[in-house]
Amino acid sequence: MPKLSQRTAISPIKLMVIGDSGTGKTGALESLVRAGYKLKILDFDGGLDYLQEALKDVPELLENIEYATFSNKFKTVNGRVIPKGNPKAWADGLKALESGKIPNSDPEEFWGKPEEWGEDTFLVTDSLTMASKAAMLQVLHLNGRLFEPPQIQDWGQAQGLVEGLIQWLCSEDIKCNVMVLSHINFIEMANGVMKGYPSAVGKALSTTLPRYFNTILNATTKGSGKSAKRIISPVPIQSIETKASVPVDKLPESWPIETAYAEFMLLAKGAVPNPDYKPKKNSQPSGGNKPGYGS
C-alpha cells in the first residue's frame, strides 16, 4: 500500500473564486499576466474591458491572453424574452475545449486543447454563473420548453452538464492551472443560517461544486464609500466559506485585488513564470481607487 510520504502532490492549481458582481474577480487576473502566466479565457460574461485597459502600459502582455466569448442572442415574443435561434453558447464553449478551435471564428482560430497546456497557463471560466444559464437555455431549447418554467428534469439535466464540465476541468487530464469565477448564491441551511456558495444551476449543485476544488477564494469589498477596498480573501468571511491548498499559518487575512492571484500562486507554487515579478508592497488595492475594476 502506498505511503503518504511517497505521494506527489497534484501540481496544477485548480481554484474557484466567488464574489458579488463588481468585486474584481475578472480584473484581478491582471496580476497573473504580469507574473508571467498565459490566460485562456472562456468568456460567458463579456466583461474583459477592464483587463484590457489595465494592461495597456505593457501591450505585449496582451498577447498572452487568448479568449473566446460565448453568448446567445435574444428577442421578444408575446411579451417574453427568448433566445433568437438556437442557444449555442454552452455548446460552443464545450466545442472550443474539445476541438481546440474557436467556433464561428473567421478565419478559423486555433488555441489548442487544455490537455496540452502547461502549468504556465490558466484556463479561466468567466463566469460559472452565466455559463450555467447558458446550459439551462440549451436544455430548455432541446426539451421544447423555452416558453415554460424549467421542470424538475430540466434542472437535473442542466446540473449534470455543469457538474460534468467541472469534473473534467478538475481532473488529472487537465495539466494546466484552472480558475473558475462565480457569483455568490446565498442559501439557507437546515439550521436557518445563510451561507454563500458558488452560483450555478440550483441549490443542490451550488453546495456540491466546492468539493471539486482544493482552493476557494472570496472576492469582496472591505469598508464603504471612498475608503472601500476590494480584496481577495483566503480565509472565511462572515457567511462565505473558503479553503486553500496552502498551510493556514502562511496565509494572510487578504491580498489587495491588484496582486492577489499572483501572490497566492507564489505561496502555492513557490515561484511564478516571470522570475522578475515582484508584488507591490503596501499598495492600495486598485479596486478601491479605480471604479469599474471588473467583475
Itemize the secondary structure elements and their pairings.
Elements: E1 14-19, H1 30-34, E2 38-43, H2 49-54, E3 65-69, E4 74-77, E5 80-83, H3 89-99, E6 101-102, E7 109-110, E8 121-126, H4 128-142, H5 152-169, E9 177-182, E10 184-188, E11 194-198, H6 202-208, E12 215-222, E13 229-233, E14 255-256, H7 260-269, H8 286-289
Parallel strand pairs: 1-9, 1-12, 2-3, 2-8, 8-9
Antiparallel strand pairs: 4-5, 6-7, 10-11, 12-13, 13-14
Helix pairs in contact: 4-5
If you had to describe this structure to a student in words, what would you say it looks like?
The strands form four sheets. The chain has an eight-stranded mixed β-sheet with strand order 3-2-8-9-1-12-13-14. Strands 4-5 form a two-stranded antiparallel ribbon. Strands 6-7 form a two-stranded antiparallel ribbon. The chain has a single domain (4-289), classed as Rossmann fold, CATH 3.40.50. By secondary structure, the protein is of the alpha/beta class. The longest helix has 18 residues, at 152-169. A hairpin with a 2-residue loop joins strand 4 (74-77) and strand 5 (80-83). The chain has helices at residues 30-34, 49-54, 89-99, 128-142, 152-169, 202-208, 260-269, 286-289, and strands spanning 14-19, 38-43, 65-69, 74-77, 80-83, 101-102, 109-110, 121-126, 177-182, 184-188, 194-198, 215-222, 229-233, 255-256. It is built from eight helices and 14 strands.
